[in-house]
Design brief:
Blueprint: E1 2-5, H1 7-14, H2 23-31, E2 33-36, H3 38-49, H4 57-68, E3 71-72, H5 77-84, H6 93-104, E4 109-111, H7 115-120, E5 124-125
Parallel strand pairs: 1-2, 1-4, 2-3, 4-5
Length: about 130
């Protein structure tokens, strides 16, 4: 079973801030093959550019790959974009594509602290 991480969760894990995650989120991560959408890489890049995170995106993902086995999910871009067309509950392109990626990948679980995502994606875990 796979489990996607939202961007904020990936940042917290890379900083060793596991205490920010409630038990259901921690369990989902421990029980699954943990992945991120390539869109998380882009969002991490933006966060790094505006100095909200200090670690460059590829270094952050590499750190998580060694620490928890994280991989960047290679799933059909066309399928993700098709699904994203129907994620009209948000104008945030990052949230839209991250949720679409998980949804188009067999309704995979997505660990996220984002309440709006939790309201609109039944497989959100928090």
């Amino acid at each position: 079973m796979i489990c996607y991480l939202d961007t904020q969760v990936a940042v917290w894990l890379s900083e060793g801030r596991v205490e920010k995650l409630p038990p259901p989120a921690q369990a989902a991560i421990e029980e699954s093959d943990v992945v991120v959408s390539p869109m998380v890489l882009l969002e991490l890049g933006y966060l790094h550019e505006i100095k909200r995170i200090m670690k460059p995106p590829l270094a952050l993902v590499d750190h998580l790959q060694h620490r928890i086995g994280l991989t960047v999910r290679d799933h059909s871009f066309a399928a993700v974009m098709h699904t994203a067309l129907f994620e009209d509950w948000t104008r945030d392109p990052f949230d839209r594509v991250i949720v679409a990626h998980a949804r188009s990948d067999g309704e995979a679980r997505l660990v996220t602290s984002d309440r709006k995502i939790q309201e609109h994606y039944s497989q959100a875990v928090w």
